[in-house]
Amino acid sequence: MSDRAPAPASTAVVRTPVASVSGFSVRVVPDGPVLLPETTAQIHAGQVTALVGASGSGKTTLLRALIGHLPAGATATGSLDVLGRTPHQLPAGELRTLRRTTVAYVGQDPGSALDPRMTARRLVAELATDPREETVLELLAECRLPVDTGIAGRRPPALSGGQQRRVALARALARTPRILLLDEPTAGLDSAVRDDIAHLLRDLATRRDLAVVIATHDAHLVETCADHTIRLTPKTPPVPRARVAEPTPPATGDDSLPGDGGLAAHAIDAFFRSGRRRSPVLTDVAFSAAPGAATALIGPSGSGKTTLLRVMAGLHPAHTGHLTLDGRPLASRVQCRTREQQRRIQLVPQNPLAALNPRHTVGQQLTRPLRLHTDLPKSAHAERVTELLAQVDLPADHADRYPEELSGGQRQRVSIARALAAGPDILLCDEVTSALDADTATGIMELLTRLRREHRTALVVVSHERDVVARHTDTVHFLDAGRITDSGPTARLLPA
To answer: What is the pLDDT of residues 23-49, one digit of tens each?
Structure first.
């Protein structure tokens, strides 16, 4: 299924694929859930191949199979060939060599693979075939990072999600691989950077004779740069969308009743530290989220949107200014907030893999907030977990799965369900639809809209999807270089 016209028959050159799968499928155990339905495909050098399909259809599993990384206990059937080898059957030493020199993989949660103690410069140089400073800076610039701003000297916590993604891409290219695998490479990026990445991938495939494989929900990316499209279809039938359940009773506390003020940030300044150097990321920001309101934060990658959410969640310090909840002072550090304040303010991060415990099942991770923040009896926990999974369109049997057995979109939905388990009054959502297919994204936003209308939940959404913002928010704030440059009704600032 090619999106580009093939060369005329008289000039076409038949090339051996660098990777191929034939009748290849993956499931957790012989009779367990199917992670990748039976798939047949060929991947060629110099071309961009797009893997598309609904969340949970097996896109991420196929990418991981190409680097020999299958979930523990998984079984594979059919054939898989990468440059004459079957990665998951290779001895450990040969597999390491394959990953180091031939096949590079950038996951959907690239920040989790970046050492937080290393600068961007060192992260790229660590794997580079040519680790000279000049070459490293060229790679960062090639991946659309502004090297003239000193970004090469920043560590991952001081980078936005989009910037982390581009550092991870530069790090992968530094190995000069023959095959480049990318999971949702444009998730969480603004439209201008998305276009840059699309053109970069097209250029890399052609100029380096590189086989590029992307798993994506981004139709524009596929249309812009893909030579071939492989559509995967999940075996699991759709889950009927559940009615929003009544929130579980909050734990007792003297500040348990929401007031009329909601959450507010006053004159917030925030910095990232790199050694003795401080880089401002938010400057004199004022923001509020009233009960029942839906507010959006939009702006280019690196403008401070995620940092503002983290400040309000108590996960990043505000160096000046203060926070209030219902007009009362709110501690800037989450550890200093009461249990009830923690329940009321929940963050759904952009990077769900880093936020989910890999050693705990989905059911265990959804049960924990029920135990900590509600009075729901233990005997009712399993039923409530099933309700939460249904609300985010996941089957009940996913409660027994571990995070690595889920696709990126499925992990994102688990992260949303975990936040909903606490029955929050304020829900901070960081790019929660960027890893989801269009139908699931619509269902999630409809769920959040029903929550805020029925239970006066305040919704704060960070998104580069302007159509999502236009349909599901009342107010929008534009951030640029850490400052709010404009605010007002969404209908006025983002007309349909």
So the answer is: 999 988 767 778 899 999 999 999 999
496 vs 489: CA distance, rounded Å? 12
Is there a contact between 431 and 350 (Cβ–Cβ < 8 Å)?
yes
Q: What type of residue is 116?
A: P
Beta strand 48-52 with 228-231 is: parallel
Contacts of 146 (CB under 8 A, 6+ apart): none
Q: What does the pLDDT read at residue 236?
A: 53
3-state helix, strand and coil shares in percent for the chain, rounded to the nearest 5: 40, 25, 40
Which phi and psi (to 5°) does residue 471 adopt?
-80, -30
Sign of torsion, CA 176 178 184 186? positive
Q: What is the pLDDT of residues 182-227, one digit of tens each?
A: 998 888 777 788 888 899 899 999 999 999 999 998 888 999 999 9
Contacts of 382 (CB under 8 A, 6+ apart): 363, 399
CB 47 within 8 A of CB 228: yes
Residue 15 in tokens: 């090339």
Both structure tokens of 28: 């957790």
What distance, in Å, lies between the first and last C-alpha atoms of the chain? 33
Distance CA 421, CA 350 (A): 18
Rounded to 10 deg, the angle between the 161-173 and 191-207 helix axes is 10
H/E stretch holding 81: strand 75-82
Confirm if 329 and 323 have CB atoms less than 8 A apart: yes
The residues, ordered by sequence, that sit 6+ positions from 179 with a Cβ below 8 Å of its Cβ are 18, 19, 43, 66, 82, 83, 102, 103, 104, 210, 211, 213
Output the furthest CA–CA distance in the chain (Å, rounded).
80
* Helix H or strand E encompassing 229: strand 228-231
For 220, the enclosing helix (H) or strand (E) is helix 219-225
What distance in Å separates the CA atoms of residue 254 and residue 185, rounded to the nearest whole number?
A: 46
Listed residue (224, 217, 148, 147) closest to 182, CA to CA: 217
Give the strands of the sheet with 48-52, arranged side by side.
103-106, 179-183, 211-215, 48-52, 228-231
Bridge partners of 297? 462, 477
Residue 463, amino acid: S
Token couple for 390: 């249904």
Residue (of 255, 253, 185) closest to 222 by Cα position: 185
Cα 191 to Cα 199: distance, rounded to the nearest angstrom = 12
Three-class DSSP category at 378: helix
Q: What's the pTM?
A: 0.71
Please report the sign of the dihedral spanned by the C-alpha atoms of residue 140, residue 144, residue 150, residue 153: negative
- Alpha-carbon span 63 to 169, nearest angstrom: 15
> Which letter does DSSP use for residue 149 in this model?
G
